[in-house]
Amino acid sequence: MNDNQRKKVLLGGLAIVIAVYFGRSMVQSIVMGPVNDMRIQLGKAEQANERLEKSDRLLKIAQRNLKDWRYYSLPPDADDAQRVYREWLFDLAKQCGFAGPGFEVIPGARSVQKEFTTVSVEVKKAETDLQGLTRFMYLFDNAQLMQRISNLKVDSPGAQGNPRLSVSFTAEGMSVAGTQVHADLLPRTKLAAAVTETATEIKALPNDNFIVPDPFEPFEVRIEKELLKVTELTQSGWKVQRGFEGTKAAAHPEAAYVEYFPEMWDRKEKLMDHYSSFLASSPFVIPSPPKAFNPRLGGVSDKTVKPGEPVKFTARAENFNPELGEPQFALSDAVEGMTIDPKSGEFTWTPASDLGSGSYAATVLLTQAGNPDVKLNSKVTFTIRSDNKAPVLNLPKSVVVVLEQPFKMKLDATDDGKGELKFSLGAGSPAGLAVDAKTGEINWTPPRSLAPDKYRVEIKVTDSGDSPKTSTGTIEFDVQEDYASLTLMTGALTKNGVWCAWFRNKATGKTEELKAGEKLKVSEIDAELVSISNQYVTLKDAQGVWKLGIGKGLRERKLIEPATPAAPTTPAEDSTEKKPEPADSPAAPAEVPAAGTEPKPERPASTPEPTPATTPEATPAPTPAPASPAPATAPPA
Question: What pTM was computed for the model?
Answer without folding.
Answer: 0.37
